[in-house]
Amino acid sequence: MAKKFEFKTLYLNKDGPIRHYTVKCIHENFEKIVNVRETLGNIHIPNLTQQFEGLNSVGRIGLGIQLKDHIEKQ
Question: Could you tell me the pTM of the whole model?
């Protein structure tokens, strides 16, 4: 079963069609602030491995999917 993360959008900067988000991701002992960029519906998490440091590859994929869903609901 995948971990369920909580998300809080701390910052949103709109620059034309580009949106820059700073999001706090929380799950039990894990807490990380992540930068995300959205351009015309395409979501990009720069330096994914470094930003999700401390999670294994399965955890990074799960967090990435949940984070994408969070951004799309904004």
Answer: 0.85
What pLDDT, in 10s, does the model give residues 37-46?
Answer: 999 989 998 8
Question: Which residues, at least 6 apart from 5, have a Cβ–Cβ distance to it below 8 Å?
Answer: 25, 26, 27, 30, 62, 63, 66, 67
Residue 12 has pLDDT above 80, yes or no: yes
Give the DSSP letter string of the chain: -PPPPEEEEEEEEEETTEEEEEEEEEETTEEEEEEEEEETTEEE-TTHHHHTTTS-HHHHHHHHHHHHHHHHH-
